[in-house]
């Protein structure tokens, strides 16, 4: 996590302290990682439980759907309840779900635990609005870039750690280790997080109902969530199938190779603060368009140079930088719409983005089952191409 500290100290001072910002970025990365540990182990799970590629892909799909449900029904509470207490309670239940996964006796139980992990790993989406709330208005893009940079590091290192650990000690060890990390993180947050009082006294029903009002009122919100959902569908469609294509000829790699490939994506985290600062100074629209165009380019590289490990590495680098940059810019647009509704705006943005990821995991899996890696590449390029068109409308 030294990259996070470097990203913080290279920018101007913010209203939020550097130490707290680093803690929030690391906590966001560690909590979001729980959604993605299962992706690098799909090959192992398919072999152990004697499952087809289509069946084993249900695990990341349902984990993502659980994440969507958590974002929709839990994350809006950040506007209604005291944020510190909400974060700590959610993390406690997340630990329980991880322990269930660690002792799961069957794939069905693992899927049930995966849904619970996705549901309560939405604590990440309580941390992000908290960081934006604590930042000064002129530096929200930078702060958002650093925290979402931590999230991307968590996502890519989740695959690296999961791949290596599951190869060496089995997939159960991944969930045991994850539960330990969450207990440690919760202890640190207990000591460091400030109390942040609610910004609204709406009842829970009216709080959820206001999501539709926000969506109906803000055209920028509708455009941003559509573009990001399409981009994330392409992104998850790629990562959900990488373990399967690496297990097949000409690669014949194990889960560790998937994890090592994910390390390339850490460069995307370094691009996040730059994208945030660019959005602060020049506006986010151009950043979004550039990001979507680069996603299309990445899938063109994947499709045109199949079997080339060098092309795969270059494409992964471009893909992760592009997705992270577009997300930071789109979130900056969304958070500026209503300061009193940031948790709810984040709920709408992240729920649709993760739903896009679930569609990407399922659609990419079906495309791979039908047409192999070419099908995954076509799916990703089509999704990103549509996002590019939407970003210009």
UniProtKB/TrEMBL annotation:
Keywords: Membrane, Transmembrane, Transmembrane helix. Residues 20-393 form the Major facilitator superfamily (MFS) profile domain. The chain crosses the membrane at residues 20-37, 49-74, 86-104, 110-131, 143-161, 173-193, 225-247, 253-275, 344-364, 370-390. The keyword Magnesium does not apply. InterPro entries: MFS (IPR011701), MFS_dom (IPR020846), MFS_trans_sf (IPR036259). The keyword Membrane applies. It comes from the Bacteria. PANTHER family: MAJOR FACILITATOR SUPERFAMILY (MFS) PROFILE DOMAIN-CONTAINING PROTEIN, TRANSPORTER SCO4007-RELATED. This is MFS transporter. It comes from Mesorhizobium humile.
């Amino acid at each position: 996590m030294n990259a996070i500290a470097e990203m913080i100290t290279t920018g101007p001072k913010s209203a939020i302290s550097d130490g707290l910002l680093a803690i929030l970025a690391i906590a966001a990365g560690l909590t979001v990682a729980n959604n993605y540990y299962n992706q690098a182990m799909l090959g192992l799970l398919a072999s152990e439980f004697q499952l087809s590629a289509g069946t084993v892909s249900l695990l990341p799909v349902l984990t993502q759907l659980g994440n969507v449900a958590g974002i929709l029904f839990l994350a809006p509470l950040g506007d209604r309840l005291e944020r510190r207490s909400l974060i700590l309670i959610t993390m406690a239940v997340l630990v329980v779900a991880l322990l269930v996964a660690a002792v799961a006796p069957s794939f069905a139980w693992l899927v049930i635990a995966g849904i619970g992990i996705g549901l309560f790993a939405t604590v990440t989406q309580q941390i992000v609005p908290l960081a934006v709330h604590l930042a000064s208005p002129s530096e929200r893009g930078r702060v958002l870039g650093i925290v979402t940079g931590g999230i991307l590091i968590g996502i890519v290192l989740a695959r690296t750690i999961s791949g290596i650990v599951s190869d060496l000690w089995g997939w159960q060890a991944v969930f045991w280790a994850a539960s330990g990390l969450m207990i440690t993180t919760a202890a640190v947050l207990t000591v460091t997080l400030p109390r942040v009082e609610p910004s609204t006294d709406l009842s829970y029903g009216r709080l959820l109902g206001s999501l539709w009002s926000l969506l109906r009122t803000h055209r920028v919100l509708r455009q941003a969530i559509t573009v990001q959902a399409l981009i994330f569908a392409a992104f998850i469609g790629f990562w959900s199938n990488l373990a399967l294509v690496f297990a097949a000829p000409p690669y014949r790699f194990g889960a560790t190779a998937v994890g090592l490939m994910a390390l390339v994506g850490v460069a995307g985290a370094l691009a996040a603060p730059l994208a945030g600062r660019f959005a602060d100074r020049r506006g986010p629209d151009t950043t979004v368009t550039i990001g979507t165009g680069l996603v299309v380019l990445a899938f063109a590289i994947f499709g045109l140079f199949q079997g080339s490990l060098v092309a795969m590495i270059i494409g992964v680098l471009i893909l992760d930088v592009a997705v992270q940059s577009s997300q930071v810019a789109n979130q900056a647009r969304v958070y500026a719409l209503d300061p009193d509704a940031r948790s709810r705006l984040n709920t709408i943005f992240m729920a649709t983005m993760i739903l896009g990821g679930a569609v990407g995991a399922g659609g990419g899996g079906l495309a791979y089952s039908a047409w192999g890696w070419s099908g995954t590449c076509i799916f990703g390029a089509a999704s990103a191409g549509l996002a590019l068109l939407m970003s210009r409308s």
